[in-house]
Design a protein that fits this description.
This protein is of the alpha+beta class. It is 24% helix and 42% strand. The strands form three sheets. The protein has a five-stranded mixed barrel with strand order 5-6-7-12-11. A four-stranded antiparallel beta sheet has the order 1-4-3-2. A three-stranded antiparallel beta sheet has the order 8-9-10, with no helix packed on it. It is elongated. Residues 168-180 have low confidence and may be disordered.
Amino acid sequence: MFVLAELKDNVRIAPELFNLKLPEAIKDEVNRKLANKVLLNVGLCIALKDIIKLGDSIILPGDGASHTEVHFRYIVFRPMIGDVITGKIRSCSREGVHVTLGFFDDILIPPSALQHPSRFEEAEQAWVWEYPLEDGKKHDLYMDIGENIKFRVSGEVFEESSPIGPPDQEAASTSATTTDTNKTPYRIVAAINESGLGLLSWWVTQSQEDEEGEEEQEAEEEEEMDEED
């Protein structure tokens, strides 16, 4: 779920930070720039792991700050396709089930990837798995907000989200900028349409029922043996 990304950047250290040791100042500046930011085709940056190499520091004309080329490793959130992760349901809509990990909210389980058959309840604003029973009837299992849910990562989408449009064309640029800035730079597509995935409470209940059934069967077998003796 977390990976190490090797990155390179030219880090600017302001004069007021010259009292700090260079690696310490660079660490603070790199974390300030990257922590909780999404890098295109890299992932969500979490924290600096270590500095691999520091280049020579230079001061540019007209700028009192130092500039240093830095090679470093950064801890990045980018789960692999197929990874199984547990999160919490943040909300439900006709688009699907929206899941959060606490530090990352842009996870969507689309309707096609839910347990089948499922339906969306407008009044409850929740998806419902119509679990088939042995007698042919169905039992409604609601996917409520705040429930723990286990899902499999099935895809990822990166999008550039910087504003577009020339500043002198306000009418034209307003709609373009609004649309682009509302894009999610990194989102995960997930699925729960296989056994063992979905709300944790579903499978806990089922395993308890299975255990109770096995215990009952063992008790019946013991009774039969006693009667034979």
